[in-house]
UniProtKB/TrEMBL annotation, chain A:
Signal peptide limits: none
Domain Phosphomevalonate dehydratase small subunit-like: 24-98
PANTHER family, per the entry: DUF521 DOMAIN PROTEIN (AFU_ORTHOLOGUE AFUA_6G00490)
Record's protein name: Phosphomevalonate dehydratase small subunit-like domain-containing protein
Automatic annotation (TrEMBL), chain B:
A Pfam family hit: AcnX
Coiled-coil parts of chain: none
Protein name (Swiss-Prot/TrEMBL): Aconitase subunit 1
Organism: Elstera cyanobacteriorum
Keywords carried by this UniProt record: Iron, Lyase
Residue ranges of every copy of the Phosphomevalonate dehydratase large subunit-like domain listed in the record: 4-405
MF terms in GO: lyase activity
Amino acid sequence: MIRPGRAYADGQAEGAALVLTEALSFWGGIDSATGTIIDRSHPQVGESVAGKILVMPGARGSSSSSSVLAECLRLGTGPLGILLARPDPILTVAALVARSLYGIACPILVAEIAGIATGDRLRLQANQGGGHAEILPAH
Amino acid sequence: MAFRLTPQDQALLNGEAGAAVASAMSVLSAFSEALGAEELLDISRAHIDGCLFHGQVSLDFVERLVAGDGRVRVPTTLNVGSLDLIHPERVHLVPAAEAPARRLMEAHVALGCIPSFTCAPYQTRFRPKFGEQIAWGESNAIVFANSVIGARTNRYGDFIDLCCALTGRAPAWGLHLDENRRGQILFRLTGFPASQEATDGLFIAVGLLIGSQSVEKVPVIEGLPVPRDEDQLKALGAAAASAGAVGLFHAVGITPEAPTLADALGGQAPLAVITITPADVEAALARLSSVPDGAPLGAVCLGTPHFSLTEWKRLIPLVREIAPRCAVPIYVNTGRATLMALEETGALTGLTDFGVIPVADTCTYITAVLEQIDGVVMTNSGKWAHYAPGNIGVQVAFGSLEECVASAAAGRVVRGAA
């Protein structure tokens, strides 16, 4: 099943989805050393974004979130890619800086997220503004 | 229309102003294109929120710009860092954490930034004017510049604010443009007495309420009493930006783009009308405190955002009158320029004997300043109350400035008339 989307940061990624039911602020919400969600008011507190395709409605909160996501990507504790329902400029900057400094790609795509569950296998393709998310058949 | 760079932008991207500017323009143009901007526009100043250490990436980004001979192209102020460079003994960081935090602050100065280290740059001599296009980071500064002054900035995050400063450009998008500054959601104060007082608590509560209910829309507030001073609007904006993502609000009859309700809404109908009642205000303020009255205190923290001269002039007589011997210290975050101005007039003489501890360049909720955080901390700041429990693990009591001073004197949470 392929869903068209708009690319905010280029790249491709494939992996298991972690679906957040609420927006998350990376600053104050993620421990960059581990990729674990530490915001106690968040429904998915304790889950780790490391190595996952992060799926969420949007981001919120601090303008320092770009630093925290970029640090996660540097350390390898970040998501493989991000699928959002609403665009977020602050996360976009993090992906651009991680690519510019370290050559690490973290595709960010805005598309329909309904019907995706945690554990689903997803493939993101994001290139020059265009892209799609694909839900892959289970192994 | 597709995104286009001018020949001058293209020259910067091609490295004609050096490697640092080229990499800044590369990130800025990719960012602007992703947002859907059609072009860049000139900015006249910038404020950088990247001096706070978030890990090696913070240093890698800035030091690459220093190595590439980067210099900011517009007057650029700096937000708080992780250290108090004026009173280094105030911050208790281990050397392994202190060294990179200091390097990060110094690297920004090496790029030509002004070492202001304050989250209230709008209360320094670098304050922008109405209509100025600027690129500011720091959520409370963004909302103040847009709303109270009528300057124009988007909510710029770490890294991109510095890219704007090095190139002198920003995306022609969002709050830089007339059409996106129109109010969209109307918050109407109802059920308040005609003689309602402009208390600090009212402004903070309204900030929290519009922040948590505006999502990504521009809020308009109708029925707000005339503020005592701009510090009340500063507290409102800081609370709104902490509880949500507000970058601009209009207060009818108070802020410069909202002389009338029709002006604030750009002549259109609001998408939604939400009432704010005295009960809503009371509940919003009650949520900021997690301890009962009478709870023993470890400290009082004021100055988030950084205390202005006006706020100091309210505090100093209160301390001299109510709390000549504080049971617990009163930490006051403030900008180094404000502190110097105060010291020159002798206004601070003897205050440290009373237990007042000025903190410059940083803030008590983001770094290790407090001597004793196992107790409860009292604050008059909605922003401090919002962030400190998660950041430094304290319990918070929220109160007015007068209540904070009376509580510091008593060593426990005191409410009402001191």
